[in-house]
Structures are given as structure tokens and as C-alpha cells.
């Protein structure tokens, strides 16, 4: 019998299924705010995020979103969710966010509400601020208003 070869992208399907259960309410909320085909996705290195088809940018290009928790680059497990960050990205572009939205759970009451708010803020940032962004910056709308972050 040949030993299994190591790879850098081994998906932990047990963990993936658990994440689908843990984030079930949030996936429903994404669908409710107009995100098509919401799901948990691997972002590499055994990290996961929520994703889905987010529609189109102002130029008509298809975009998708990635949503993560607690300021981390991946979904949180085993600790309370305190905030959501949502980035909008071109389907056919590079991996630089077009716009971002954040929302804290404390300010909005529960995790699905905070996620829905973060999606709305990211879409607002995309449609209102993308054309006027300073060079090398992306608009982020969070609980404190609009800020410009490095692209």
C-alpha cells in the first residue's frame, strides 16, 4: 500500500460540516440580504469563511463576498462571535477587496443581525465610495463610520 502524500490543502470535512451547522443562521441571513448561494468555503491553510455571490459592482462586474469573525482572517470556533467583517471581491479579479463592511454583535444584538449589517455596509462602501477612494485605499464602513484602509 502506498502512503498518502502530504498536501497543503487538506480540507477537514468533519470540521467543514460542523461549521455549516454552527453558522446555519448566518447562512440564512446572507440569503435574506440577497447573497446567492451562501456557503462555508475554505480560504486555505485549513481556514474557512462564509461566501456567496454578492451581485455586481457599479461597473457591472460580478462580485462575491467573504465574511469572517472577530477581526480574524477566518471563522471563529469555540469562542463567542463579537463582530463580522465582510469584504467584496471581483469574481475575475485579484484578491484585493473592492470594499469592506464591519459590524459588532454588541451594537446589533445577535450574530445574524451583525452579519446582515456588515453586508449592507460593504455594499454601501462599494457603491458610494469606490470611485472617490484615495490611491491604494479601500472604503470600510464600520460602527464608527467610514475609514480608508490599505488595499
What's this entry about, in short?
Keywords: Plasmid. The protein contains four helices and seven strands; from the N terminus they run ααβββββααββ.
What do these coordinates show?
- The longest helix is centred in the C-terminal third of the chain and has 19 residues, at 111-129.
- The chain is α+β, with helices and mostly antiparallel strands and 151 residues long.
- It starts with 12 loop residues before the first helix and ends with a strand.
- Helix 2 (24-32) runs parallel beside helix 4 (111-129).
- Strands 1-2-3-4-5-6-7 form a 7-stranded mixed β-sheet.
- Mean pLDDT is 86; it is low at 1-14.
- 28% of the residues lie in helices and 35% in strands.
Topology:
Elements: H1 13-22, H2 24-32, E1 36-44, E2 47-56, E3 62-69, E4 83-90, E5 99-104, H3 105-108, H4 111-129, E6 137-142, E7 145-150
Keywords: Plasmid
Features:
alpha+beta, 7-stranded mixed β-sheet, about 150 residues, disordered N terminus
Beta-strand proportion: 35-45%
Number of helices: 4
Structural class, by secondary structure, is alpha+beta
Q: Unreliable stretches, pLDDT < 50, 5 or more residues? A: 1-14
Distance between the terminal alpha carbons, to the nearest Å? 48 Å
> If you compute it from the alpha carbons, what radius of gyration comes out, rounded to the nearest whole angstrom?
16 Å
Summarize model confidence as the mean pLDDT. Answer: 86
Keywords: Plasmid
Amino acid at each position: 500500500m502506498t502512503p498518502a502524500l502530504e498536501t497543503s490543502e487538506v480540507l477537514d470535512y468533519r470540521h467543514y460540516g460542523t461549521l455549516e451547522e454552527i453558522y446555519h443562521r448566518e447562512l440564512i441571513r446572507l440569503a435574506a440580504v440577497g447573497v446567492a448561494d451562501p456557503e462555508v468555503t475554505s480560504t486555505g491553510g485549513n481556514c474557512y469563511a462564509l461566501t456567496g455571490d454578492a451581485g455586481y459592482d457599479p461597473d457591472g462586474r460580478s462580485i462575491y463576498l467573504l465574511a469572517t469573525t472577530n477581526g480574524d482572517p477566518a471563522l471563529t470556533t469555540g469562542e463567542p462571535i463579537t463582530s463580522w467583517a465582510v469584504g467584496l471581491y471581483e469574481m475575475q479579479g485579484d484578491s484585493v477587496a473592492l470594499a469592506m463592511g464591519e459590524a459588532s454583535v454588541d451594537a446589533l444584538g445577535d450574530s445574524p443581525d451583525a452579519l446582515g449589517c456588515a453586508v449592507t455596509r460593504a455594499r454601501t462602501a462599494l457603491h458610494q465610495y469606490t470611485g472617490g477612494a484615495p490611491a491604494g485605499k479601500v472604503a470600510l464602513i464600520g460602527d464608527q463610520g467610514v475609514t480608508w484602509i490599505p488595499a
